[in-house]
Amino acid sequence: MRVCVIGTGYVGLVTGACLAHIGHHVICIDNNADKVALMQSGQSPIFEPGLAEIMQAAMQAGNLEFTTDLGAGVAHGEILFIAVGTPALPTGESDTRYVEAVARGIGSHLNGGYKVIVNKSTVPIGSGDWVKRIVLDGVAERQQTIAGFDVVSNPEFLREGSAVFDTFNPDRIVLGSNSTKAIAMMRKLYAPIIARRFAEDPFLLPVPVVETDISSAEMIKYAANAFLATKISFINEVANICDRVGADVTQVAQGIGLDSRIGKKFLQAGIGWGGSCFPKDVSALIHTAVDYGYDAQLLRKAVAVNERQKLIALEKLQQVLKILKGKTIGLLGLTFKPDTDDMRDAPALILIEQLNRLGAKVKAYDPIIAQTGMAHGLSDVKVESDAVQLADGCDALVLITEWQSFRKLDYAKLGEKMISKIIIDGRNFLDPEVLTASGFQYIGIGRPTHKDITSTPSVGAELVATY
Ligand code: UDX
Protein backbone atom coordinates (compact mmCIF):
# COMPACT_ATOMS: atom_id res chain seq x y z
CA MET A 1 0.00 0.00 0.00
CA ARG A 2 1.06 3.64 -0.40
CA VAL A 3 1.74 5.27 2.95
CA CYS A 4 2.73 8.75 4.05
CA VAL A 5 4.02 9.33 7.59
CA ILE A 6 4.16 12.94 8.74
CA GLY A 7 6.63 13.53 11.56
CA THR A 8 9.78 11.44 11.98
CA GLY A 9 10.14 11.38 15.74
CA TYR A 10 10.23 8.08 17.59
CA VAL A 11 6.76 6.97 16.60
CA GLY A 12 6.76 8.27 13.02
CA LEU A 13 10.17 7.04 11.97
CA VAL A 14 9.79 3.60 13.53
CA THR A 15 6.29 3.20 12.07
CA GLY A 16 7.42 4.35 8.61
CA ALA A 17 10.52 2.15 8.56
CA CYS A 18 8.65 -0.93 9.83
CA LEU A 19 5.79 -0.51 7.33
CA ALA A 20 8.35 -0.15 4.55
CA HIS A 21 10.13 -3.26 5.83
CA ILE A 22 6.95 -5.32 5.40
CA GLY A 23 6.59 -4.20 1.78
CA HIS A 24 4.57 -0.97 1.78
CA HIS A 25 5.81 2.06 -0.12
CA VAL A 26 6.36 4.72 2.53
CA ILE A 27 7.20 8.40 2.23
CA CYS A 28 8.19 10.04 5.53
CA ILE A 29 7.83 13.80 5.85
CA ASP A 30 9.57 16.11 8.26
CA ASN A 31 9.89 19.88 8.13
CA ASN A 32 13.44 19.71 9.51
CA ALA A 33 15.58 19.67 6.34
CA ASP A 34 18.78 18.65 8.17
CA LYS A 35 17.05 15.67 9.69
CA VAL A 36 15.58 14.68 6.33
CA ALA A 37 19.06 14.89 4.74
CA LEU A 38 20.46 12.68 7.51
CA MET A 39 17.73 10.07 6.98
CA GLN A 40 18.17 10.22 3.21
CA SER A 41 21.77 9.15 3.81
CA GLY A 42 20.45 6.05 5.63
CA GLN A 43 21.18 7.27 9.15
CA SER A 44 18.75 7.28 12.03
CA PRO A 45 18.49 10.54 13.99
CA ILE A 46 17.66 8.54 17.12
CA PHE A 47 19.51 5.71 18.81
CA GLU A 48 17.18 2.74 18.58
CA PRO A 49 18.41 -0.87 18.25
CA GLY A 50 17.82 -2.26 14.74
CA LEU A 51 16.26 0.90 13.30
CA ALA A 52 19.12 2.08 11.05
CA GLU A 53 19.43 -1.44 9.62
CA ILE A 54 15.77 -1.74 8.60
CA MET A 55 15.79 1.84 7.29
CA GLN A 56 18.75 1.08 5.02
CA ALA A 57 17.28 -2.22 3.78
CA ALA A 58 13.91 -0.62 3.01
CA MET A 59 15.59 2.30 1.23
CA GLN A 60 17.62 -0.09 -0.90
CA ALA A 61 14.43 -1.98 -1.77
CA GLY A 62 12.94 1.35 -2.90
CA ASN A 63 10.23 1.23 -0.24
CA LEU A 64 11.26 4.13 1.98
CA GLU A 65 11.80 7.78 1.10
CA PHE A 66 12.25 10.97 3.07
CA THR A 67 11.26 14.48 2.06
CA THR A 68 10.19 17.85 3.43
CA ASP A 69 7.51 18.09 0.74
CA LEU A 70 4.16 17.54 2.44
CA GLY A 71 2.25 17.95 -0.84
CA ALA A 72 4.19 15.09 -2.43
CA GLY A 73 3.58 12.87 0.59
CA VAL A 74 -0.16 13.60 0.72
CA ALA A 75 -0.48 12.95 -3.02
CA HIS A 76 1.37 9.63 -2.61
CA GLY A 77 -0.38 8.14 0.42
CA GLU A 78 -3.62 6.19 0.53
CA ILE A 79 -2.97 6.16 4.25
CA LEU A 80 -1.65 9.32 5.88
CA PHE A 81 -0.21 9.00 9.38
CA ILE A 82 -0.04 12.04 11.63
CA ALA A 83 2.89 11.25 13.92
CA VAL A 84 4.07 14.63 15.19
CA GLY A 85 4.79 15.43 18.81
CA THR A 86 2.24 16.46 21.41
CA PRO A 87 4.57 17.77 24.14
CA ALA A 88 3.29 18.89 27.52
CA LEU A 89 2.65 22.61 27.97
CA PRO A 90 3.88 24.16 31.24
CA THR A 91 0.34 23.64 32.56
CA GLY A 92 0.58 19.88 31.89
CA GLU A 93 -1.95 20.04 29.08
CA SER A 94 -1.07 18.56 25.74
CA ASP A 95 0.26 20.97 23.09
CA THR A 96 -1.63 20.04 19.94
CA ARG A 97 -0.38 22.84 17.71
CA TYR A 98 1.79 20.51 15.59
CA VAL A 99 -1.12 18.14 14.98
CA GLU A 100 -3.24 21.12 14.03
CA ALA A 101 -0.61 22.41 11.58
CA VAL A 102 -0.31 18.99 9.94
CA ALA A 103 -4.10 18.56 9.67
CA ARG A 104 -4.26 22.00 8.06
CA GLY A 105 -1.44 21.04 5.71
CA ILE A 106 -3.18 17.82 4.72
CA GLY A 107 -6.38 19.78 4.07
CA SER A 108 -4.56 22.21 1.82
CA HIS A 109 -3.05 19.41 -0.29
CA LEU A 110 -5.75 16.76 -0.25
CA ASN A 111 -6.93 15.64 -3.65
CA GLY A 112 -7.16 12.42 -5.64
CA GLY A 113 -8.73 9.24 -4.31
CA TYR A 114 -10.14 8.25 -0.93
CA LYS A 115 -7.66 8.55 1.96
CA VAL A 116 -7.44 7.37 5.51
CA ILE A 117 -5.97 9.92 7.94
CA VAL A 118 -4.51 8.16 10.96
CA ASN A 119 -3.88 9.83 14.28
CA LYS A 120 -0.78 8.02 15.57
CA SER A 121 0.27 10.85 17.88
CA THR A 122 -1.07 10.66 21.41
CA VAL A 123 -3.79 13.28 21.13
CA PRO A 124 -6.31 14.53 23.68
CA ILE A 125 -9.59 12.67 23.69
CA GLY A 126 -11.87 14.13 21.05
CA SER A 127 -9.05 15.01 18.64
CA GLY A 128 -10.28 12.65 15.94
CA ASP A 129 -13.33 14.82 15.20
CA TRP A 130 -11.29 18.00 15.58
CA VAL A 131 -8.71 16.81 13.02
CA LYS A 132 -11.51 15.94 10.60
CA ARG A 133 -12.92 19.47 10.87
CA ILE A 134 -9.53 21.13 10.29
CA VAL A 135 -8.85 18.98 7.23
CA LEU A 136 -12.33 19.79 5.89
CA ASP A 137 -11.73 23.51 6.47
CA GLY A 138 -8.53 23.31 4.40
CA VAL A 139 -10.32 21.52 1.59
CA ALA A 140 -13.23 24.01 1.65
CA GLU A 141 -10.84 26.99 1.43
CA ARG A 142 -9.60 25.68 -1.90
CA GLN A 143 -13.16 24.94 -3.06
CA GLN A 144 -11.95 21.46 -4.03
CA THR A 145 -13.99 18.35 -4.49
CA ILE A 146 -12.27 15.34 -3.04
CA ALA A 147 -13.04 11.65 -3.08
CA GLY A 148 -13.43 11.74 0.69
CA PHE A 149 -11.46 10.65 3.73
CA ASP A 150 -11.95 9.13 7.15
CA VAL A 151 -10.05 9.57 10.37
CA VAL A 152 -8.76 6.60 12.38
CA SER A 153 -7.22 6.70 15.83
CA ASN A 154 -4.44 4.10 15.91
CA PRO A 155 -2.47 4.64 19.12
CA GLU A 156 1.10 3.44 19.41
CA PHE A 157 2.40 1.38 22.32
CA LEU A 158 6.05 0.99 21.38
CA ARG A 159 8.73 1.42 24.01
CA GLU A 160 11.96 3.28 23.42
CA GLY A 161 14.89 0.91 23.25
CA SER A 162 12.73 -1.90 21.82
CA ALA A 163 10.63 0.10 19.38
CA VAL A 164 11.32 -2.05 16.30
CA PHE A 165 10.70 -5.28 18.20
CA ASP A 166 7.48 -3.86 19.67
CA THR A 167 6.20 -2.80 16.24
CA PHE A 168 6.59 -6.32 14.86
CA ASN A 169 5.40 -7.99 18.09
CA PRO A 170 2.50 -5.90 19.40
CA ASP A 171 0.23 -7.18 22.17
CA ARG A 172 -2.70 -5.68 20.27
CA ILE A 173 -3.55 -3.23 17.51
CA VAL A 174 -6.19 -0.62 18.35
CA LEU A 175 -8.24 0.87 15.51
CA GLY A 176 -10.77 3.54 16.40
CA SER A 177 -13.09 4.80 13.66
CA ASN A 178 -16.71 5.01 12.65
CA SER A 179 -15.83 3.99 9.09
CA THR A 180 -15.78 0.29 8.17
CA LYS A 181 -13.98 1.18 4.93
CA ALA A 182 -11.15 2.89 6.84
CA ILE A 183 -10.89 0.01 9.32
CA ALA A 184 -10.69 -2.50 6.47
CA MET A 185 -7.81 -0.53 4.90
CA MET A 186 -5.97 -0.41 8.22
CA ARG A 187 -6.40 -4.17 8.67
CA LYS A 188 -4.95 -4.67 5.19
CA LEU A 189 -2.01 -2.38 6.04
CA TYR A 190 -1.19 -4.33 9.20
CA ALA A 191 -2.10 -7.79 7.80
CA PRO A 192 1.49 -9.15 7.87
CA ILE A 193 1.98 -7.94 11.44
CA ILE A 194 -1.44 -9.25 12.54
CA ALA A 195 -0.52 -12.63 11.02
CA ARG A 196 2.85 -12.41 12.86
CA ARG A 197 4.81 -12.92 9.66
CA PHE A 198 7.55 -10.63 10.97
CA ALA A 199 7.31 -11.60 14.64
CA GLU A 200 9.91 -13.25 16.86
CA ASP A 201 7.52 -16.14 17.39
CA PRO A 202 5.38 -16.71 14.27
CA PHE A 203 3.54 -19.61 15.96
CA LEU A 204 1.62 -17.39 18.34
CA LEU A 205 -2.07 -16.67 17.67
CA PRO A 206 -2.71 -13.63 15.42
CA VAL A 207 -2.36 -10.22 17.03
CA PRO A 208 -5.72 -9.18 18.53
CA VAL A 209 -7.25 -6.17 16.79
CA VAL A 210 -9.44 -4.01 19.01
CA GLU A 211 -11.97 -2.03 16.98
CA THR A 212 -13.52 0.91 18.81
CA ASP A 213 -14.99 4.34 18.30
CA ILE A 214 -12.42 7.13 17.97
CA SER A 215 -12.66 8.50 21.53
CA SER A 216 -12.29 5.06 23.09
CA ALA A 217 -9.14 4.39 21.04
CA GLU A 218 -7.72 7.73 22.18
CA MET A 219 -8.62 6.87 25.78
CA ILE A 220 -7.00 3.42 25.51
CA LYS A 221 -3.62 5.03 24.93
CA TYR A 222 -3.92 7.33 27.95
CA ALA A 223 -5.39 4.64 30.19
CA ALA A 224 -2.63 2.16 29.28
CA ASN A 225 0.16 4.60 30.07
CA ALA A 226 -1.58 5.89 33.21
CA PHE A 227 -2.09 2.33 34.44
CA LEU A 228 1.54 1.35 33.88
CA ALA A 229 2.83 4.54 35.51
CA THR A 230 0.51 3.94 38.48
CA LYS A 231 1.69 0.34 38.71
CA ILE A 232 5.29 1.54 39.04
CA SER A 233 4.31 4.19 41.60
CA PHE A 234 2.50 1.45 43.50
CA ILE A 235 5.55 -0.82 43.67
CA ASN A 236 7.73 2.16 44.58
CA GLU A 237 5.41 2.92 47.48
CA VAL A 238 5.59 -0.74 48.54
CA ALA A 239 9.41 -0.50 48.27
CA ASN A 240 9.47 2.48 50.62
CA ILE A 241 7.42 0.53 53.17
CA CYS A 242 9.70 -2.50 52.63
CA ASP A 243 12.67 -0.29 53.50
CA ARG A 244 11.07 0.55 56.80
CA VAL A 245 9.93 -2.93 57.80
CA GLY A 246 12.99 -4.76 56.45
CA ALA A 247 11.22 -6.65 53.64
CA ASP A 248 12.68 -7.09 50.15
CA VAL A 249 10.58 -5.51 47.39
CA THR A 250 12.16 -7.69 44.68
CA GLN A 251 10.81 -10.76 46.45
CA VAL A 252 7.48 -9.07 47.10
CA ALA A 253 7.19 -8.15 43.40
CA GLN A 254 7.86 -11.75 42.45
CA GLY A 255 5.32 -12.99 44.95
CA ILE A 256 2.54 -10.69 43.81
CA GLY A 257 3.49 -10.68 40.12
CA LEU A 258 2.88 -14.39 39.75
CA ASP A 259 -0.78 -13.70 40.42
CA SER A 260 -1.98 -13.52 36.81
CA ARG A 261 -4.44 -10.78 37.79
CA ILE A 262 -1.49 -8.58 38.75
CA GLY A 263 1.18 -9.72 36.27
CA LYS A 264 4.90 -9.57 36.83
CA LYS A 265 5.86 -6.78 34.42
CA PHE A 266 6.35 -3.17 35.50
CA LEU A 267 6.90 -4.08 39.12
CA GLN A 268 10.53 -3.02 39.29
CA ALA A 269 10.95 -0.54 42.09
CA GLY A 270 13.48 2.21 41.56
CA ILE A 271 14.08 5.92 41.29
CA GLY A 272 10.83 6.61 39.45
CA TRP A 273 9.43 6.72 35.94
CA GLY A 274 10.37 9.24 33.28
CA GLY A 275 10.65 9.44 29.51
CA SER A 276 8.73 11.07 26.75
CA CYS A 277 5.38 9.39 27.39
CA PHE A 278 4.41 8.55 30.96
CA PRO A 279 4.89 12.01 32.52
CA LYS A 280 3.21 13.88 29.65
CA ASP A 281 0.36 11.43 29.12
CA VAL A 282 -0.55 11.06 32.79
CA SER A 283 -0.64 14.82 33.26
CA ALA A 284 -2.64 15.30 30.03
CA LEU A 285 -5.22 12.78 31.27
CA ILE A 286 -5.45 14.56 34.63
CA HIS A 287 -6.06 17.81 32.74
CA THR A 288 -8.68 16.29 30.48
CA ALA A 289 -10.50 15.10 33.59
CA VAL A 290 -10.31 18.62 35.06
CA ASP A 291 -11.73 20.05 31.83
CA TYR A 292 -14.76 17.84 32.37
CA GLY A 293 -15.09 18.76 36.05
CA TYR A 294 -13.51 15.59 37.44
CA ASP A 295 -10.62 15.34 39.89
CA ALA A 296 -8.54 12.27 38.96
CA GLN A 297 -7.20 11.78 42.49
CA LEU A 298 -5.51 8.43 41.99
CA LEU A 299 -3.56 9.71 38.97
CA ARG A 300 -2.52 12.86 40.81
CA LYS A 301 -1.18 10.70 43.62
CA ALA A 302 0.66 8.43 41.16
CA VAL A 303 2.47 11.55 39.91
CA ALA A 304 3.13 12.81 43.46
CA VAL A 305 4.58 9.44 44.52
CA ASN A 306 6.82 9.56 41.45
CA GLU A 307 8.05 13.08 42.20
CA ARG A 308 9.02 11.96 45.71
CA GLN A 309 10.60 8.77 44.37
CA LYS A 310 12.93 10.73 42.11
CA LEU A 311 14.57 11.96 45.33
CA ILE A 312 14.82 8.57 47.02
CA ALA A 313 18.52 8.24 46.11
CA LEU A 314 19.19 11.65 47.65
CA GLU A 315 17.47 10.57 50.87
CA LYS A 316 19.61 7.44 50.99
CA LEU A 317 22.80 9.40 50.28
CA GLN A 318 21.99 11.73 53.17
CA GLN A 319 21.31 8.78 55.46
CA VAL A 320 24.69 7.27 54.75
CA LEU A 321 26.93 10.31 54.07
CA LYS A 322 25.03 12.84 56.23
CA ILE A 323 26.39 16.15 54.92
CA LEU A 324 26.50 16.24 51.10
CA LYS A 325 28.15 19.64 50.77
CA GLY A 326 31.59 19.22 49.21
CA LYS A 327 31.08 15.48 48.59
CA THR A 328 31.42 13.96 45.11
CA ILE A 329 28.63 11.76 43.81
CA GLY A 330 29.08 9.63 40.70
CA LEU A 331 26.02 8.70 38.65
CA LEU A 332 26.11 5.45 36.69
CA GLY A 333 23.74 6.21 33.82
CA LEU A 334 21.73 9.30 32.99
CA THR A 335 19.06 8.33 30.45
CA PHE A 336 15.53 7.58 31.68
CA LYS A 337 16.01 3.91 30.74
CA PRO A 338 18.66 1.80 29.00
CA ASP A 339 19.10 1.36 25.23
CA THR A 340 18.05 4.91 24.49
CA ASP A 341 19.78 8.29 24.40
CA ASP A 342 16.63 10.04 25.57
CA MET A 343 16.92 12.35 28.57
CA ARG A 344 13.35 13.68 28.49
CA ASP A 345 11.95 13.79 32.02
CA ALA A 346 14.77 11.52 33.17
CA PRO A 347 14.74 11.07 36.97
CA ALA A 348 18.49 11.86 36.91
CA LEU A 349 17.77 15.51 36.06
CA ILE A 350 15.98 16.31 39.28
CA LEU A 351 18.53 14.36 41.34
CA ILE A 352 21.39 16.34 39.75
CA GLU A 353 19.57 19.60 40.44
CA GLN A 354 19.04 18.75 44.10
CA LEU A 355 22.57 17.42 44.64
CA ASN A 356 23.93 20.66 43.21
CA ARG A 357 21.60 22.66 45.41
CA LEU A 358 23.01 20.88 48.45
CA GLY A 359 26.57 21.68 47.39
CA ALA A 360 27.62 18.22 46.17
CA LYS A 361 29.79 17.77 43.10
CA VAL A 362 28.09 15.57 40.51
CA LYS A 363 29.83 13.43 37.92
CA ALA A 364 28.23 10.93 35.57
CA TYR A 365 29.04 8.21 33.10
CA ASP A 366 26.46 6.95 30.63
CA PRO A 367 27.56 4.58 27.84
CA ILE A 368 25.36 6.17 25.18
CA ILE A 369 26.23 9.73 26.12
CA ALA A 370 29.92 8.78 26.16
CA GLN A 371 29.42 7.28 22.67
CA THR A 372 27.35 10.05 21.10
CA GLY A 373 28.90 12.94 22.99
CA MET A 374 25.41 14.35 23.46
CA ALA A 375 25.04 15.86 26.88
CA HIS A 376 22.47 18.57 26.25
CA GLY A 377 20.87 20.11 29.29
CA LEU A 378 23.54 18.58 31.50
CA SER A 379 25.50 21.67 32.45
CA ASP A 380 25.56 20.88 36.19
CA VAL A 381 27.24 17.54 35.83
CA LYS A 382 30.71 16.52 34.69
CA VAL A 383 30.28 13.79 32.10
CA GLU A 384 33.08 11.21 32.23
CA SER A 385 34.06 8.87 29.43
CA ASP A 386 34.31 5.66 31.46
CA ALA A 387 33.31 4.15 34.78
CA VAL A 388 36.83 4.15 36.28
CA GLN A 389 37.17 7.88 35.68
CA LEU A 390 33.72 8.32 37.16
CA ALA A 391 34.64 6.47 40.36
CA ASP A 392 37.80 8.51 40.83
CA GLY A 393 37.38 10.64 43.96
CA CYS A 394 33.72 9.75 44.54
CA ASP A 395 32.16 9.49 47.99
CA ALA A 396 29.35 7.36 46.58
CA LEU A 397 28.03 5.99 43.32
CA VAL A 398 24.34 5.96 42.36
CA LEU A 399 23.12 3.59 39.65
CA ILE A 400 20.52 5.56 37.70
CA THR A 401 20.02 3.53 34.51
CA GLU A 402 20.15 -0.25 34.25
CA TRP A 403 22.54 -0.53 31.30
CA GLN A 404 23.57 -4.21 30.94
CA SER A 405 27.25 -3.21 30.83
CA PHE A 406 27.00 -1.98 34.45
CA ARG A 407 26.67 -5.60 35.60
CA LYS A 408 30.06 -6.38 34.10
CA LEU A 409 32.05 -3.53 35.64
CA ASP A 410 35.07 -4.36 37.80
CA TYR A 411 33.66 -2.92 41.02
CA ALA A 412 36.74 -3.81 43.07
CA LYS A 413 38.76 -1.60 40.72
CA LEU A 414 36.17 1.20 40.89
CA GLY A 415 36.18 0.96 44.69
CA GLU A 416 39.96 1.50 44.82
CA LYS A 417 39.46 4.91 43.20
CA MET A 418 36.74 6.03 45.60
CA ILE A 419 36.91 7.93 48.88
CA SER A 420 34.24 5.69 50.40
CA LYS A 421 32.88 2.53 48.78
CA ILE A 422 29.17 3.22 48.81
CA ILE A 423 26.72 2.38 46.05
CA ILE A 424 23.03 3.22 45.85
CA ASP A 425 21.47 0.85 43.32
CA GLY A 426 18.59 2.97 42.06
CA ARG A 427 17.20 0.15 39.92
CA ASN A 428 17.86 -2.92 42.15
CA PHE A 429 19.88 -4.09 39.20
CA LEU A 430 23.21 -5.19 40.64
CA ASP A 431 23.98 -8.31 42.65
CA PRO A 432 24.42 -7.22 46.29
CA GLU A 433 26.77 -10.15 46.91
CA VAL A 434 29.12 -9.11 44.10
CA LEU A 435 29.17 -5.54 45.36
CA THR A 436 29.69 -6.56 48.96
CA ALA A 437 32.48 -8.94 47.94
CA SER A 438 34.10 -5.98 46.18
CA GLY A 439 34.10 -4.08 49.47
CA PHE A 440 31.06 -1.88 48.79
CA GLN A 441 28.28 -0.90 51.12
CA TYR A 442 25.35 -1.82 48.86
CA ILE A 443 22.06 0.06 49.28
CA GLY A 444 19.10 -0.86 47.09
CA ILE A 445 15.55 0.50 46.88
CA GLY A 446 13.22 -1.38 49.21
CA ARG A 447 15.78 -4.08 49.85
CA PRO A 448 17.50 -4.77 53.12
CA THR A 449 21.22 -4.04 52.92
CA HIS A 450 23.36 -7.04 52.18
CA LYS A 451 24.59 -7.07 55.78
CA ASP A 452 20.98 -7.34 56.96
CA ILE A 453 20.30 -10.27 54.66
CA THR A 454 23.33 -12.27 55.83
CA SER A 455 22.93 -11.45 59.50
CA THR A 456 19.19 -12.20 59.64
CA PRO A 457 18.78 -15.58 61.36
CA SER A 458 16.88 -17.97 59.15
CA VAL A 459 13.82 -18.30 61.39
CA GLY A 460 11.95 -20.38 58.82
CA ALA A 461 14.81 -22.83 58.54
CA GLU A 462 15.05 -23.14 62.33
CA LEU A 463 11.34 -23.81 62.65
CA VAL A 464 11.48 -26.45 59.96
CA ALA A 465 14.46 -28.02 61.66
CA THR A 466 12.77 -28.01 65.10
CA TYR A 467 9.55 -29.31 63.69
C1 UDX B 1 6.15 3.80 27.55
C2 UDX B 1 5.16 2.66 27.34
O1 UDX B 1 5.70 1.45 27.87
C3 UDX B 1 4.84 2.49 25.86
O2 UDX B 1 3.83 1.50 25.69
C4 UDX B 1 4.34 3.83 25.31
O3 UDX B 1 4.10 3.72 23.92
C5 UDX B 1 5.35 4.93 25.58
O4 UDX B 1 5.64 4.99 26.98
P1 UDX B 1 8.80 4.12 27.29
O5 UDX B 1 8.59 5.51 27.79
O6 UDX B 1 9.66 3.91 26.10
O7 UDX B 1 7.39 3.43 26.92
O8 UDX B 1 9.46 3.29 28.47
P2 UDX B 1 9.04 2.15 29.52
O9 UDX B 1 9.87 0.95 29.28
O10 UDX B 1 7.59 1.95 29.57
O11 UDX B 1 9.55 2.83 30.88
C6 UDX B 1 9.02 4.08 31.32
C7 UDX B 1 9.66 4.47 32.63
O12 UDX B 1 9.22 3.62 33.68
C8 UDX B 1 11.19 4.40 32.65
O13 UDX B 1 11.69 5.53 33.34
C9 UDX B 1 11.48 3.13 33.40
O14 UDX B 1 12.73 3.15 34.05
C10 UDX B 1 10.33 3.10 34.40
N1 UDX B 1 10.01 1.76 34.87
C11 UDX B 1 9.49 0.84 34.00
C12 UDX B 1 10.19 1.44 36.21
O15 UDX B 1 10.63 2.27 37.01
N2 UDX B 1 9.82 0.19 36.64
C13 UDX B 1 9.30 -0.74 35.82
O16 UDX B 1 8.98 -1.84 36.31
C14 UDX B 1 9.13 -0.42 34.45
Automatic annotation (TrEMBL):
Pathway info: Nucleotide-sugar biosynthesis; UDP-alpha-D-glucuronate biosynthesis; UDP-alpha-D-glucuronate from UDP-alpha-D-glucose: step 1/1
Lineage start: Bacteria, Bacillati, Cyanobacteriota, Cyanophyceae, Nostocales
Superkingdom as given in the UniProt entry: Bacteria
Record has Nucleus as a keyword: no
Gene Ontology terms: biological process: polysaccharide biosynthetic process; UDP-glucuronate biosynthetic process
Stored InterPro entries: 6-PGluconate_DH-like_C_sf (IPR008927), NAD(P)-bd_dom_sf (IPR036291), UDP-Glc/GDP-Man (IPR017476), UDP-Glc/GDP-Man_DH_C (IPR014027), UDP-Glc/GDP-Man_DH_C_sf (IPR036220), UDP-Glc/GDP-Man_DH_dimer (IPR014026), UDP-Glc/GDP-Man_DH_N (IPR001732), UDPglc_DH_bac (IPR028357)
EC number: 1.1.1.22
Gene Ontology terms, MF aspect: NAD binding; UDP-glucose 6-dehydrogenase activity
Catalytic activity entry: UDP-alpha-D-glucose + 2 NAD(+) + H2O = UDP-alpha-D-glucuronate + 2 NADH + 3 H(+)
Keywords on record: NAD, Oxidoreductase
Protein name: UDP-glucose 6-dehydrogenase
Record-linked Pfam families: UDPG_MGDP_dh, UDPG_MGDP_dh_C, UDPG_MGDP_dh_N
Active site: 277
Annotated residues for binding of NAD(+): 30, 35, 86, 122, 160, 280, 344
Binding residue positions for substrate: 157-160, 221, 266-270, 274, 337
All copies of domain UDP-glucose/GDP-mannose dehydrogenase C-terminal, residue ranges: 330-432
Family statement drawn from the similarity comment of this UniProt entry: Belongs to the UDP-glucose/GDP-mannose dehydrogenase family.
